[in-house]
Amino acid sequence: MDEHQARGRYAPSPTGALHSGNLRTALLAWLWARQAGGRFVLRMEDLDLPRARPGAAAGILADLRWLGLDWDEGPDIGGPYGPYLQSARQTLYDAALARLRARGLLYPCYCTRAELARIASAPQGGDEPGRYPGTCRDLTAAEQMNRAAQGRRPALRFRAPDAPITFVDRVAGRVTEHVAETAGDFVVRRSDGIVSYQLAVVVDDALMGVTQVVRGADLLTSTARQLALYDALGYPRPAEYAHVPLLLDASGARMAKRDASLGLAALRERGMTPAQILGMLAASCGLWPAGAPATPGVLLAAFAPERLS
After folding, report:
1. For the chain, does the N or the C end have fewer beta carbons within 10 angstroms?
2. What pTM value is reported for the model?
């Protein structure tokens, strides 16, 4: 791996067709990596197989290619840091969990969803909404056995560091978060055995040498937790984060994959060409004149991240 070469990525989940907001994020991640002269990695985040839809992964690859976006490594072409499907990387996640466990940074949590909901809604808990108060943090072995005897399958939680984490985001600026105070100890493996997004994305980005994380602004609040895992696992942090604005629907709400009218298929049925769609996506965040078509190469030549809106 060239330590000086930028490595960007796009990591969709195959739970349905990409909508316009997903496509815009993919375009921005591609532009960021290519402008830096870096490699672009495509990873399929299909870890939660029950939610994956048959054919969705192939459809995503086809849609991105139809728009003219390319990648240097991915599930269809391979690469030196594969596999590029999360569902085939379980041994890597297990190894990371073992390292955290060996450092005493994991513990089983037997709280049910109903219990966690009651904790979050308690009027006098002193905890911020959504913050885990450490209910299972210091259970004795006997208490753990008692809960297991009740048929409760534990999740695994990571002991959040008791210190603030700071990073600089290319869009949001300097961000500081004290994870232990805002989120508390967080889940790294669910009670059904599926590892969490927070752990999987850290392991994948670190082992794939990703230096540049460009993704939606909705994931900004996950970054401090992920950096805590980077540090605990001894991985170097990504050199660059950019949490780009979300594309909203007509009502001002965040787009969802279930709204087919916002997907590429609907735009193609209206007769829009790849150049028209790319121009529309770039114009929607201030990078291109409204109504003007564009190719990936033309957008790359004009790409100026500071103009993002």
Report:
1. C
2. 0.92
Catalytic residue among 25, 257, 262, 294: 257
Residue span(s) of the chain under CATH 3.40.50.620 come to 7-88+203-218+236-307
CATH second-level architecture of 7-88+203-218+236-307? 3-Layer(aba) Sandwich (3.40)
pLDDT digits (tens, 9 = 90+) for 140-184: 999 999 999 998 899 999 999 999 999 999 999 999 999 999 999
In this structure, are residues 232 and 158 in contact, taking their beta carbons and an 8 Å threshold? Answer: yes
Q: What is the pLDDT of residues 263-286, one digit of tens each?
A: 888 999 999 999 999 999 999 999
